[in-house]
Amino acid sequence: MSCEGFDWKAYTLGDLAGAEGKRHEEHLKGCEAxxxxxxxxxxxxxxxxxxxxxxxxxxxxxxSDPVVEPSWWAxxxxxxxxxxxxxxxxxxxxxxxxxxxxxxxSPDPGQFETKVAQEVAKKLPAAVDEAVAARYAPALxxxxxxxxxxxxxGLVKARAALDAQRKADMxxxxxxxxxxxxxxxTRYLSAARFGGN
Length: 197
Hints:
76% of the residues lie in helices and 0% in strands. The chain has helices spanning 8-13, 19-30, 32-50, 72-78, 80-100, 109-193. Helix 2 crosses helix 3 (32-50). The N and C termini lie far apart (119 Å).
């Protein structure tokens, strides 16, 4: 119980200012009961500030309103015993139906494996040949056509083209050297005329 004459709610909310606020602070230093009440109020204010802000509802519904009544589906799900009984009944029917179905004998596993091995041995070589032919046929045809082209004089034609290119390059180099020699001679003559070195 706190002391009389002190408004700890107003002090905690920060409504007291000036001399009244200082009087409360001085009293708080020496009174444990008032300290306990002030700390409890501060804790409450802190908790209230941390609550999420929510809009108030626009309309308050009453139990008698039809809007609040649950639908038949919600009432069915809400009834635990009825739902449990329905689930158990469905499970029983499923077990009985499964038991009454005709069962086929399972084949011998070894017999099945031998049949699979025989089928694989029959079909695998042909499938591999087809896959290799489909995959590498264009590359083999291209390689064969290139080899045929080289055998029919492609190599001779390539050598002749290279020789012609080399001759043309040599003529261009000679022409460039001749032009450079002419320019150098012109510069030497100019330097000699005007007294340069």
